[in-house]
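Re: that backbone. Tokens:
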């Protein structure tokens, strides 16, 4: 195959992704019980809850590679009327914050923390959806390191508001492998290519020693942060509940498969976000937390 400066863009995610969190990845919430890392056997380590105090264990998916989307490459760049786009640059980068409010008008010069990595003719998203005045515009000049001039603003914006490269959601192509029917080739796709990871199931691993536990619940939340605009909002991906986990003491480990509700199986693409697992246990004597495996779809290719 001849050399190409194009990237391969995959429509369909790979369905066999796994993310493994061991006992070493969990932390105990301050004031939420006690526990110690314990070597059960060679290669087997637990975070052991050793009192009857209600305990809260927390883990984050912050180290998992996520994506925030880029424009589809239709490989049809002919003529002079090419619509502007990412040109292979990651969308959602760069990002900065205003240092002064901006007034609606033409050729608006916006004071920012930094104009580094922004460029003339770049498409921008101004402000947040929550502000009610979010809009798109285009860079016409970079006067200096702390200002960006845009073509126009339709709304007034109160500082501090975010400014970022345009987050494209341009769908393209017929998904799936050929052959395609004649009709589907002319039917537009109505959603962007899915990118990042989509969590479908979690499998907590644990041992309840000697005496039955009285509480054993687990939940998972997605939380998003916006700079000084709105309070962070957490969305439950899995409601904290027993979710089929056992309370019965056993010498052998439990591995409880817990499906994520289909309505909550969305691709995690938001910047400045985190996914937090909370595991709450009240034990009769000791419980060994061994870890959690998350099953997911992933589409990390172009």
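Recovered sequence:
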């Amino acid at each position: 195959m001849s050399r190409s400066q194009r990237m391969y863009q995959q429509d369909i995610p790979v369905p066999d992704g796994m993310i493994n969190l061991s006992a070493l990845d969990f932390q105990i919430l301050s004031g939420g019980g006690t526990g110690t890392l314990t070597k059960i056997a060679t290669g087997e380590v637990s975070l052991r809850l050793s009192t009857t105090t209600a305990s809260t264990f927390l883990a984050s998916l912050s180290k998992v590679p996520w994506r925030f989307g880029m424009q589809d490459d239709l490989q049809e760049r002919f003529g002079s009327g090419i619509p502007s786009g990412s040109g292979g640059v990651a969308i959602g980068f760069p990002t900065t914050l205003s240092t002064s409010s901006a007034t609606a008008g033409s050729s608006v010069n916006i004071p920012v923390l930094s104009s580094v990595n922004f460029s003339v003719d770049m498409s921008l998203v101004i402000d947040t959806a929550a502000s009610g005045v979010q809009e798109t515009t285009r860079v016409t000049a970079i006067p200096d390191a702390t200002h960006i001039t845009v073509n126009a603003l339709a709304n007034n914006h109160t500082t501090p508001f975010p400014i970022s490269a345009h987050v494209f959601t341009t769908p393209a192509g017929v998904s799936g492998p050929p052959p395609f029917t004649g009709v589907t080739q002319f039917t537009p796709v109505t959603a962007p290519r899915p990118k990042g990871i989509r969590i479908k199931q979690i499998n907590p691993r644990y041992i309840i020693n000697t005496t039955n536990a009285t509480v054993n619940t687990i939940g998972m939340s997605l939380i998003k942060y916006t700079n000084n605009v709105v309070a962070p909002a957490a969305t439950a991906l899995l409601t904290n509940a027993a979710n089929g986990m056992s309370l019965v003491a056993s010498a052998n480990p439990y591995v409880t498969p817990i499906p994520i509700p289909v309505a909550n199986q969305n691709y995690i693409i938001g910047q400045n976000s985190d996914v937090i697992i909370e595991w709450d246990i009240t034990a009769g004597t000791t419980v060994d937390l061994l870890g959690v495996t998350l099953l997911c779809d992933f589409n990390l290719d172009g």
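The radius of gyration is 24 Å. The chain has two domains: 14-67+194-299, 95-165.
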